[in-house]
Amino acid sequence: MSDLLVAKGLTKQYGNKIALNNFDLTIPEGSIYGLLGPNGAGKTTFLRIINQITAPDKGSVTVAGKPLDKSVISMVGYMPEERGLYNNMKIGEQALYFAKLKGLSNVDAHKKTKYWFEKLGILEWWDKKLTELSKGMGQKVQFVITVLHDPELLIFDEPFSGFDPVNAQIIANEIMELRDKGTTIIFSTHRMESVEEMCDHIALINLSNKVLDGEINQIKHQFKSGKYFAEVENVSLENQNRFKSEFDVEVVSNTDHSFQFNIAKPENLSSNDLLFKLTELGQIAQFKEAIPSMNEVFLKAVKNN
Q1: Terminal C-alpha separation, the chain
Q2: Residue 23: strand pairing partners
Q3: 3-state secondary structure string, 218-250?
């Protein structure tokens, strides 16, 4: 797999504030890359640089091997957190207008716009104005305008803001389908459940510096705490108490005959030894290593940086 976007040594400063500090990032082609970080970390600055809204003080970015210039504009689709639609212009006319700005002919603009309006079930909105639509409906229109020129790189900044759960899932499915067809996607969000569901890779920025970067499952394994989750059935309270006194146990729930808990494996025990100990306690219903969620990774990485 080749790399679609390569950023090297990006530095951007606004007055005395450093927004990005020697920032490197390599984004594989055909992947969904999660761009994470607290508010003010530098994510938006990076996205603005890619979109040529602002320029770095130092460093470089290439898209498909090309440096950022006018020829790259049509290769990128950007859905910013703050939407940019015209309130009093008809929705269909807006979509055609933006499609032509991205280089589509009149015929292709009509064809692509109609395809996406039909696909998302919004064709009946063609002659409506933005002021007649809810925020979520406007979001759908903004999504269509972002993707209809088939860009090689799509950038979504908090794309689910304003969506109800049903429509958020519809748009998530569309984003993943675009990825499966070969589009490269940068996905900036604070919704860690969406990161878990959608992203192949992530980078975490904090205080203008990149603190994490890599394939999502590898990063989650880096933050393992050495704990396991176990559920044991047909175990007496007496045996539960004995086991808790022997090991470092964090009880999730327990009844007279069922015991769910997290346990830190002692250094002198293998996972198989620990499992054998559990079989002496009762019938094993579940036994698995506790892999942290992306939310836990985010909080720990930011706290430690």
Answers
A1: 31
A2: 10
A3: HHHHHCCCCEEEEEEECCCHHHHHHHHHHCCEE
CATH of the domain at 268: 3.30.70
Largest CA distance in the chain: 77
Determine the residue type at 193: E
Backbone conformation region of residue 28, classed left if phi is above 0, alpha if psi is from -120 to 50, else beta: beta
Residue 50 located in a structural domain: yes
Residue ranges making up the domain that contains 254? 227-289
The DSSP output letter for 5 is E
Question: What would the pLDDT profile of 130-189 be if each residue is shown by its tens digit?
Answer: 889 888 888 899 999 999 999 999 999 989 888 889 999 999 999 999 999 999 999 998
Is residue 89 included in any domain, yes or no? yes
Report pTM.
0.86
Give the number of domains in the chain.
2
Q: And the tokens for 292?
A: 């942290």
